[in-house]
Amino acid sequence: MKKSGAYLGSIILGLNDALVEITGTLAGLTFALQNSKIILVGGFIAGFAASLSMAGSEYLSTKAECNHTKKEKKMKNHKNPKTAAFYTWLSYFLTLLFLLAPYLILNNAYHALIWTLANGILIIAIFSYNYSIEKNENFYRKFMEMAVISLGVSAISFGVGYFMRIFLRINV
Prior knowledge:
The protein is mostly helical. The protein has helices at residues 3-6, 8-33, 36-66, 70-73, 81-105, 109-135, 139-167. It starts with a helix and ends in a 5-residue tail after the last helix.
């Protein structure tokens, strides 16, 4: 197994979780708060904490899989838990920054959300293309699978944001 491919699962974990979680969070916050700067702060705090949580979970998961016996440490294809955690954190954090960028640039929260969703689709397309080449799988199927999950969560979260705004009578 190539070194870059050994941590593909860790990269997928961070990237996909960030896409789903952050687009969902931003969609919900956009409708609930309607203020780009507040959404940016809330999204960054939630995303930063989640990126660290994902890294910690990947570390523990990889460590449990490897069981780190002396025999397994000598194996060439085993994943290092610290490296796996780093790749998960890095892919999550970079995705977070890319998804938050529109809220830093635009004052209109709805326009920022549209741009963020477009960024998410771009990430999904690039990742799906690379994944389909690496794993020799169908690009369209992988793209649609990731897009439906990410955009579905965003739509549901947007609805939750609307409900919370109405229920809590938030006027921003």
